[in-house]
Amino acid sequence: MSTQTTDPLDVERIRQDFPILQRQFDGTDLVYLDNAATTQTPEPVVDCIVDYYHGYNANVHRGIHTLSQEASIAYEDAHDRVAEFIGASGGREEVVFTKNTTESMNLVAYAWGLNELGPGDEVVTTEMEHHASLVTWQQVAKRTGADIKFIPIDESGQLDMAAAKELITDDTKMLSVVHVSNTLGTVNPVSELADIAHDHGALAFVDGAQAVPTRPVDVEAIDADFYAFSGHKMCGPTGVGVLYGKRHILDEMEPYLYGGGMIKKVTFEESKWNDLPWKFEPGTPNISQGIALEAAIDYLDDIGMERVQAHEEMLAEYAYDRLSEHDDIEIYGPTPEQGRGGLVSFNIDSVHAHDLSSIVNDFGVAIRAGDHCTQPLHDKLGVAASARASFYIYNTREEIDALVEAVDEARQLFA
Ligand SMILES: Cc1ncc(COP(=O)(O)O)c(C=O)c1O
Predict the structure, then answer these.
(1) Catalytic: which of 249, 373, 383, 384?
(2) Which residue from 107, 129, 130, 190 has its CB within 8 A of the most atoms of ligand 1, so it is best to mutate?
(3) Atom of ligand 1 nearest to the CA of 178
(4) Which atom of ligand 1 has the smallest separation from the CA of 232?
(5) Where do the domains of the chain lie, and which CATH numbers do they carry?
(6) Do residues 147 and 121 make contact, with C-beta atoms less than 8 angstroms apart?
(7) 184 lines ligand 1 (CB under 6 A)
(8) Which residues pair with 180 in a beta bridge?
(9) What pLDDT digit, counting tens, does each position of 131-147 carry?
(10) What contacts 384, CB < 8 A, 6 or more positions away?
(11) What percentage of the chain carries pLDDT values higher than 70?
(12) Mean of the per-residue pLDDT values for the chain?
């Protein structure tokens, strides 16, 4: 059960669970600050995968034999554990395992959007969406004749809520909003937005890829109709993501992919779909990854998500302040006082983000450079790319100092 405290994390203790953090490059310690892309995997999660392959590797929902039963139970239990973690009282029936957030998004866009949207309908989203949602809605809009509207951001990188209230109307069928921006760090008022959408009879989809890993999330308190996230951004393995959906909505939706496992009865003429969530999980699913996602949740829950959030915010504030000491650095998104997630995207006047990333890499510091799958947002910010440092439970202030020193080196090189 989660520890309801914001006591500081014992980072040194946590780091021992991540052998990769001991890596050195030519005697320089690895400083891993690319956690918004993918987090590292702790030993208990790796052990869980090894245990599966050593002990009970078998296909699920197909065999009567003991291995298949053990694998099936563990895989099904993992769904329940995810449901508990995100406050989905409907249990496993409201939790579909996908490949990642992107696939969860596509599942909703195709299975719900293609059937429910048409000319005159609107999808309202935001200027800070990840391509996972933006590109997907674009395609579904093209195919259905629906329109997409974008809630603008203000100067500080926060949503213009007055505009949101204007844009969400009775024509809106879906509000699709990112919970925590992977570029700006903005934490969006998703519950308030979901309320506005519901007042107009629209559904609310929340992209929680950067939120579930970094803070307590309760999908029912938010009143999200759909909520998506990825295992690999929260100490879990790659290859497993989650789509939460309210049971009555998932029940009414047609499947997205077809095949074995998602059916109850098949004749030469027609097929009947399986119960939730299996209706949306055709073929052999991501068994070991799904089971290991439960281990990742146990790991984070042992630490306590309130403490994870406090640690993230502490590091974000420290990085923001340290980088702000330099006049030639522009940081995007809200100030720490306005509230921000555990990442900082920035540009330095004289150095292109890609060069910066390459130079700090020479000092063992791993950051991301590019558009972070938010090209339209970068267009709006007037830059092609930015550098992004993103933090997790095993990062320290000293590592942020190492980043700032490496940035100084880059500045001198390009002076
Ligand atoms: C906000 C946000 N949404 C969606 C995604 C897509 O996640 P995935 O690549 O795991 O599908 C990401 C990944 O960076 C993200 O940050």
Answers:
(1) 373
(2) 130
(3) 1
(4) 10
(5) 11-38+304-414 (3.90.1150.10), 46-301 (3.40.640.10)
(6) yes
(7) no
(8) 187
(9) 999 999 999 999 999 99
(10) 371, 378
(11) 99
(12) 96
